Q: What sequence folds into this?
């Protein structure tokens, strides 16, 4: 009996201690799901409410990164959550909380906006121009607060209100407060957007795990939210390099720089090492020193022109200042001189004499096509000590004073082989081409802007596979697209929607398509494209000659044929000798405004006009060239891709960086 009593007594002591602990701590604390009336995790590629049915919607093109499942917002691209009775208003108790990573600090840019901009009717969290300092905006109930650590890293923000005091927490620690009541107006909530009734800056950054509670969270609750852990960092941005044929059989790296520097500073800025990451994870020739771009062939000249198109006038490595380029000399106004042959150095008095590249010496490419100088009419005229060469929108050169500010194109002479070529976007395979669609990344009004957008890592990116290259915006398809065969009715597979199709009229987007063509016979082949707006087709192993299409700006040479400017009808044909076998290709397309479609087609032999022999590339059911893998697979492997066309054209990854 003594042992039983001892056990009972010990149990009572333990129970009493437990009661004492509870009494000391107060009432049992609610968990962090209690009072949760809105929860937006962005884990499913949208702004759905996992705590209820008050789902948010996209304004513009905010990005949903597939991993680590976060939202990216930028100017004009944000999420809006509809006004709903569950969202606390007036002076009601509440907590709004989110993880945020801020890319830039602009005054009044909102992490979230709720309410209206009048006295005490707002409940918003906004940035200041000081990194690490944020404002709770209650209009007449405002206060600033700061937080330690990296101002550009992930931080957890929670704002609570209990009817008399508003408190701000960062990473679980109270950083500021203000006494007073609120009278928040019922309204939508904007995540990253400007104020609802007062224009203000918009957030450029990342958000995750946005929560709305109809109660004031205790400090321990806020600490628990922070303890859930910060999201992983978003995927690292690729270095914005573009790999293209260099005119000498290899592939170099290029970058368009929008820095508006004088020639000397642009030259110095270009003399930087190739980033170790290079692009898309490739580390080939890391550390190679760059230079302002140069050219010695039609292929590289037109390729560089495509990179410039849509941007402002740009410096290349062309100068007649001997202090800047080996062999350069001042030859005055020689715009009326004889036109030298390509592959030769211009002598004094000939047009372009004295002009040299900063990396290779005197220029030897003078004629864009037979009889047509690379210099604009009346240039170079050395009017006012003009020592720097800039390329116009037309693709022709002008000499200007080196003190003028211009953008520029940089080049790294990595001279990669074809097998080393980094692929821009997903690669193709047996029976399909890889495709990337990028939108929400600024105005796209030229091929150069398209290339910059595709290489920047920005915008909303949709990757996927397509079985053939015949794409459209179903909400606004241009009337210029073709029937295959010509005059014979629609004997081709149905058009595919662009991967990034939103259900509305899509504008300002870029597309890159990668793959491998099986050329069945050695001989002359003619390729064509059409689109609205511009198109650039690179086929490795080709030596294109333009046959028809576009104006003087639409050119073909070496591996490249392109029509790099805005048009509703980018029709173009170019012919080339080709060996039988597998040939890699890259197709870049952009849409600025209006209708949108893209076609790539082929016919055997030399063609100077569109006829009934042309077939859509990849549409093998109706006689088009086959899309294959780098190495032709065994026959059994073909069965893996014997899927209906409807199975393709779907993005497998959607993200915005």
A:
């Amino acid at each position: 009996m003594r042992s039983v009593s001892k056990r009972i007594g010990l149990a009572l002591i333990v129970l009493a201690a437990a009661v004492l602990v509870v009494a000391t701590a107060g009432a049992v604390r609610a968990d962090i799901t209690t009072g949760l009336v809105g929860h937006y995790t962005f884990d499913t590629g949208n702004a759905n409410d996992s705590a209820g049915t008050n789902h948010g919607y996209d304004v513009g093109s905010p990005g949903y990164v597939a991993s680590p499942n976060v939202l990216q917002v930028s100017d004009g691209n944000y999420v809006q959550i509809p006004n709903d009775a569950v969202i606390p208003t007036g002076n009601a108790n509440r907590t709004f909380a989110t993880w945020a990573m801020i890319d830039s600090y602009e005054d009044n840019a909102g992490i979230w906006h709720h309410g209206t901009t009048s006295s005490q009717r707002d409940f918003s969290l906004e940035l200041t121009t000081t990194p690490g300092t944020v404002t709770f905006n209650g209009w007449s109930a405002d206060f600033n607060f700061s937080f330690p650590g990296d101002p550009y890293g992930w931080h957890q923000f929670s704002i609570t209100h209990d009817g008399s005091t508003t408190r701000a927490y960062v990473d679980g620690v109270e950083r500021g407060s203000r006494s007073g009541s609120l009278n928040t107006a019922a309204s939508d909530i904007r995540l990253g957007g400007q104020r609802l009734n007062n224009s203000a800056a918009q957030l450029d950054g990342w958000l995750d795990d946005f929560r709305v509670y109809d109660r004031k969270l205790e400090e321990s609750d806020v600490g628990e939210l922070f303890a859930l852990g910060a999201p992983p960092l978003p995927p690292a941005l690729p270095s914005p390099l573009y790999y293209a044929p260099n005119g000498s059989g290899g592939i170099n790296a290029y970058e368009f720089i929008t820095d508006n520097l004088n020639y000397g500073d642009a030259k110095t800025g270009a003399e930087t090492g190739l980033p170790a990451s290079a692009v898309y994870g490739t580390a080939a020739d890391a550390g190679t020193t760059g230079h302002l771009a140069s050219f010695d062939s039609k292929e590289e000249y037109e390729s560089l022109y495509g990179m410039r198109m849509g941007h402002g006038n740009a410096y290349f490595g062309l100068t007649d200042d001997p202090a800047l380029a080996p062999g350069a000399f001042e030859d005055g106004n020689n715009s009326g001189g004889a036109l030298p042959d390509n592959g030769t150095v211009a002598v004094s008095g000939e047009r372009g004499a004295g002009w040299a590249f900063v990396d290779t010496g005197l220029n030897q490419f003078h004629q864009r096509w037979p009889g047509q100088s690379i210099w604009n009419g009346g240039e170079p005229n050395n009017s006012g000590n003009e020592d720097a060469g800039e390329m116009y929108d037309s693709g022709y050169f002008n000499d200007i004073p080196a003190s003028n500010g211009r953008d520029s194109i940089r080049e790294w002479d990595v001279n990669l082989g074809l097998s080393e070529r980094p692929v821009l976007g997903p690669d193709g395979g047996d029976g399909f081409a890889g495709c990337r669609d990028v939108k929400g990344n600024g105005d796209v009004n030229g091929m150069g802007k398209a290339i910059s957008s595709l290489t920047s890592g920005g915008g909303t990116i949709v990757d996927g596979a397509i079985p053939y290259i015949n794409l459209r915006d179903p909400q606004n398809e241009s009337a210029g697209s073709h029937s295959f065969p010509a005059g014979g009715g629609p004997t081709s597979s149905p058009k595919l929607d662009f991967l990034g199709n939103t259900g509305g009229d899509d504008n300002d987007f870029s597309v890159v398509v990668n793959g491998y063509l099986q050329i069945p016979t050695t001989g002359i082949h003619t390729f064509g494209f059409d689109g609205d707006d511009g198109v650039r087709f690179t086929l490795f192993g080709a030596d294109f000659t333009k046959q028809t299409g576009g104006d003087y700006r639409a050119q073909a040479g070496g591996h490249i044929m392109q029509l790099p400017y805005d048009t509703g009808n980018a029709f173009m044909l170019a012919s080339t000798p080709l060996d039988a076998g597998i040939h890699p290709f890259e197709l870049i397309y952009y849409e600025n405004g209006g209708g949108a479609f893209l076609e790539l087609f082929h016919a055997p032999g030399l063609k100077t006009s569109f006829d009934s022999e042309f077939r859509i590339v990849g549409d093998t059911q109706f006689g088009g060239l086959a899309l294959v893998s780098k190495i032709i697979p065994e026959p059994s492997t073909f069965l893996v891709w014997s899927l209906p066309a409807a199975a393709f054209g779907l993005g497998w990854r959607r993200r915005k960086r």
